[in-house]
Amino acid sequence: MSVSEEIVEILTNGTVKHAVNAPKMDLNNVDENIKNFVDLSTTIGEFGIQLLDGTPSEIKITFAGNLVKNDTSLITRTIVSNILKEDLGNDVNIINALAILNQQGVTYNIEKQKKHSSFSNYIELELSNDNNQIKIGATVLAGFGPRIVRINNFSLDFKPNQYQIVTCHKDKPGIVDQTGNLLGNHGINIASMTLGHDDDEGGDALMILSIDQQASGEVINVLD
Known about the structure:
Layout: H1 3-13, H2 32-51, E1 58-65, H3 73-88, H4 97-103, E2 107-113, E3 121-128, E4 133-141, E5 145-151, E6 154-158, E7 164-170, H5 175-185, E8 190-197, E9 204-211, H6 217-223
Parallel strand pairs: 1-2
Antiparallel strand pairs: 1-3, 3-4, 4-5, 5-6, 7-9, 8-9
Helix pairs in contact: 2-3, 3-4
Domain ACT: 164-224
EC number: 1.1.1.95
Protein name: D-3-phosphoglycerate dehydrogenase
């Protein structure tokens, strides 16, 4: 059973399969607010580990707003399992994720804040190692669904997509056109584009492209 199937089984029937020696989790009465964040937490974990250069030595997950009134362990386990799956594949699931994390010597911390300055519910994932650090902030907006609203110091607002390209570059004219032309020449359609930049002219900028198909290694190498 895959992690996604395991989550569906939990949310539908409140049952956990393959839970040998696992801590008991009461999932029959999962709050609707928590359910809305489970799919988003999968995206956060996958997105974060792909943006980090290398494997994390420390993981920090911050919950803020109304979420903290509920048991957030399912969200935590989902995030961690999808971080670990990048290297370990389907050997990791929401039941054994935290145990494997401890075995690997990865430090993890959970922080809860009663309020967030901008959102009624908010999750932030921070991954770090000796080389770099990645922060991803996300929420679920009524009527709009899951949104990524922060990457590192960039405030953004975009809906997670199956295929996305994230580039960090200097904020100067021509970058957007060059990237669009590159993808167009390879037959890749851009479904949406989100831009974030520093307040300083010519500073760092971030571009997130939601595309309709997976980009080839050749395209990624050119963008790098």
